[in-house]
Amino acid sequence: MSSRPLLELEDVKAYYRQVIGPWKRIVRAVDGVSLKIYEREIVGIVGESGCGKSTLANVMMMNIRPPLMLIGGSIKLYTSKGIVNLEKYDRSYIKSSIWGKEIAMVPQSALNALMPTLKIKQIVYDAVRSHIPDIKMEKVVELIRNRFRELGLPEIAIDMYPFELSGGMRQRAVIAISTLLNPRLLVVDEPTSALDVVTQKAVIKTFKDVFDREIIKSLVFITHDIATVRQIATRIIVMYAGKIVEDSPVDDIINKPLHPYSEGLIGSVLTPEEEVKKRGIKYIPGQPPDLSNPPPGCRFHPRCPFAMDICRREEPPLIQVESGRFVSCWLYMKK
Ligand SMILES: Nc1ncnc2c1ncn2[C@@H]1O[C@H](COP(=O)(O)OP(=O)(O)OP(=O)(O)O)[C@@H](O)[C@H]1O
């Protein structure tokens, strides 16, 4: 990992406005998140369903549409031409100048979102034209052919319809397509959840290839599946109820998680793994809070076996406790 940042979020708050019949409520899906993604790293963002991972992915892309609202904070992208504060630009500028070229995303639904009536090359042509309006089909086909060849995908797939490809091949094609213009940062949301274990490995290998061949500089991999992400990530960020609770290098967090929630999460899903098995299965009692009415203080305190008075009253800041390790927990604050 280099120390050159690619993306920096500072105190970002992104909330949904929900209207259910006569009731209105605000869901605080991303609530005061600060993080940096550096060049040449693969960052896994993990947490239970509903903790705000997909919302954070959309915030990183500045893909914010109602009912999601950006309430505050800054999203700084370090591009090849300088720093761009994404929150200051409108959607059309971001779409034409940033997406695909500087930062690209494979959303959760990508596997099924490919238009079934169009061949892969036509889908790619339409997508690339939204970034480069005057590009010719021949040029796009040449780009896809080269990229498919580079990533070991069969070139024949370019002339096929999405339904003619297997799930794994479709996901690998999506990776090839989304990195066609060599974006510096690729953000992927649950890219392997719908796939069987063997196919997951092939998809992970494709991510490794785009990273190792420096087609992209860095990768953000969002998932609830720690077992998969640990095969590829260099750093893990754990989210709980719209906030970051821990940010640590992958081996450190697996061997010695700092936050009680990280320990519970890793212990509940990675128990076949030697280093985790020694600590035993950790069960986290209770449910994550309703994000329209989160508890005061630390949001994890109602489920935390170590909760103290201060945890019920005051929100813990995210502090550095060791080199490269950050945690948001009062247990680590010096008295
Ligand atoms: N379009 C929406 N309108 C209102 N609330 C939403 C919307 N999308 C998500 N939410 C709420 O925002 C919170 C965070 O959701 P988000 O999808 O970001 O979590 P997640 O960690 O990605 O979950 P999953 O793993 O299930 O996709 C949840 O409480 C969810 O119900």
From TrEMBL:
Q: What Gene3D superfamilies does this protein map onto?
A: P-loop containing nucleotide triphosphate hydrolases (3.40.50.300)
List the keywords (alphabetical).
ATP-binding, Nucleotide-binding, Transport
Checking CDD domains in the record gives:
ABC_NikE_OppD_transporters (cd03257)
Gene Ontology MF: a single term: ATP binding
The cross-references to InterPro entries, in alphabetical order and at most eight, read: AAA+_ATPase, ABC_transporter-like_ATP-bd, ABC_transporter-like_CS, Oligopep_ABC_C, P-loop_NTPase
Report domain ABC transporter positions.
Answer: 7-266
**Alphabetical GO biological process terms:** peptide transport
What PANTHER family is this protein classified in?
MALTOSE ABC TRANSPORTER, ATP-BINDING PROTEIN (PTHR43067:SF3), OLIGOPEPTIDE/DIPEPTIDE ABC TRANSPORTER, ATPASE SUBUNIT (PTHR43067)
Q: What is the protein name for this chain? A: Oligopeptide/dipeptide ABC transporter, ATPase subunit
- Give the species: Ignisphaera aggregans (strain DSM 17230 / JCM 13409 / AQ1.S1)
